[in-house]
Amino acid sequence: MAIGKRKADSGLKNGNKTNNKRSKPADSVELKVQSKKQAVTSPEESLSESDSHVSSDSESEEAEDADEKHEQEEEDEFAGFEDEDEIDNEEEEEEGEEKSEESKKSSKDAHANQKKLQKDRKASKPFADVSMKAKTLWDKLRQKGSLKADERKTLVSELFDMIKSNVKQIVFKHDMSRVIQTCVKYGSKQQRETIASELSGSFVELCKSPYGKYLAVKLFKYGTPKMKEAALGELYGHVTKLIRHREAAYVVEDIFREYTNLHQQNALICEFYGPEFQVFKERTQDMHIDKILQEHPEKRASVMNNLWKTIEGSIAKGSIGFTMVHRAMLEFIQHASTNEAKDLLQSTKEQIYEFVHTRDGSQVAMKLFAIANAKDRKAMLKALRPYFAETAKDSYGHLVLVTALDCTDDTIMTGKLLQAEFENELIKLSVHKFARRVLLYVLVGWEDARYFSKENRTMLASLSPLKATTSKKDPLVRRNELKAAIGPMLLNVISNAAGELLAESLSSQVVVDTLLTVPGDKTAAVNAVLRAFEGNPADDTHLIHQIHCSRALKTLVQNGHWNGAEKRVVKSEEELGVAEGLKGIINEHLVEWAAGDGAFVVLAVLETLDEKERKKFLDQLKKHQKTLKKSEFRGTQKLLEML
């Protein structure tokens, strides 16, 4: 009976979870269970009423049969109830699918209506038809590979006919600006001039436009000198404001850097000197600051103050990387007092990496290093450190590093900096045209005319008066301390890659001067160099056939460079012993060395030997005199003269 009761309760719980439509079957089941319970318990109640303590077996069996029968009826009743519930769920799913299809359909309709409204809005805008047709032609013009010259010319003519007389109205739209740029790029001279004339009076506004600014640069790139001059005429008087404008600053910078001559650049820069130069109408005169201050010294304070305000504003606006600002900074520091120069130093020392890569900017950086104190130099080197190797590879930046090393007395710091930044790229830097000069400065100094041009030597020499007040160490002492710091690193790379370094003309210079000037044990490096020249010189791949290798080896054999002015070899303080080591290599292929590209090396070896050894060497050469006479090499002819 207890089991029957639990089943009845669970049935009620299940009934409560279902839809309200199924409440009646659940109620009927509950009533039936209750009536059956009463029927089962009635024999027990009758026994208790008569106070009978004995129940018959037949009554007990009847009660059990009744329980089983009622349980089966109860299960049948609930089984039917669950089937009906499943049917309802299926009906609900079908209804949900129908609603989903209806919602999808309504969403598509809404999207279509939205597109239609968008299309209608575009069509209602001015020049909508022109814009759509022009963009179709423009899309064809962009196909560079498949489009022939005649087809392009035809398309450009059609496109030009669509936009002419409306250029000023449509140029500031993002899509039509590109269309007009294409017309300028592929159009004829007459078409370009027509577009430029339509934009007359709007060039300043064009520079400020986020889309029109690209067309402004295109007009300078593809325009005629007349067009450029007219556009520049509109810029005059607005340069100071434009260089601080978010969009226009890049246009003015591109124009200044790429499309103007020196006279035009001076005309643009002079607006930084003050209001009176901004409204200056005559641009044919020389407006350089040198001439202005020379003719009007009373204007110095005003000019320098206005120039500094422009520089300071450009730095604040993030335009310090512009070449135009670098020119202004150079003019400022060239005429600045000590305090004015220090103001520029404090404003730019942590951003020095922004202007070391241009001609004007590098000169500013060099002067700043020269006037800076030890603390400021440390801050500047810290700012440069992430770009140290790249700066060394730059055509102007490497001179900034040379100046920094030549000024900074803290050689422990600079030596560690060179080791950390150069060690992993030493072979690449040694081969590089500009980066190798940083290493050669440490080895031989910037005064060496073989590696530094006259212009660069003059520029570095001009900094000496400035450095004299801020640097205490003797330049030679400073270089020797740097040499001791990076010498082991250079000798190690030569020991491991002598052949690779000697095979390149530029890096062979680093090899030679490292061996001649760096202090310490050079045995491993010298042996590596000698191994690079082993083998038969008759082989086309032998290093001796490269003229720079022949010269490098001859210099090492002589133990010093030839000084043309003094007409002698300037010997190294330390004897390398290359001649002794090379003598054995030459003896293995004596004829090939003496009758080929190695003849001058053989001569250099002979000059280093004592009289006894030289006679012995010449006796060996005499045995091959007939073969040597057949050679046309100049060095071989000199050997024959000695014989």
UniProtKB/TrEMBL annotation:
InterPro entries (alphabetical): ARM-like, ARM-type_fold, CPL_dom, PUM-HD, PUM3, Pumilio_RNA-bd_rpt
Comp. bias (Basic residues): 113-124
Compositionally biased spans, kind Basic and acidic residues: 1-10, 101-112
Name of the molecule in the record: Puf family RNA-binding protein
UniProt keyword annotation of Oxidoreductase present: no
Cellular component annotations (GO), alphabetically ordered: large ribosomal subunit; nucleolus; preribosome, large subunit precursor; protein folding chaperone complex
GO BP field: protein stabilization; ribosomal large subunit biogenesis
One Pfam family hit: CPL
Annotated region described as Disordered, given as residue ranges: 1-127
PUM-HD domain boundaries: 133-510
Source organism of the structure: Schizosaccharomyces octosporus (strain yFS286)
Top-rank taxon, per record: Eukaryota
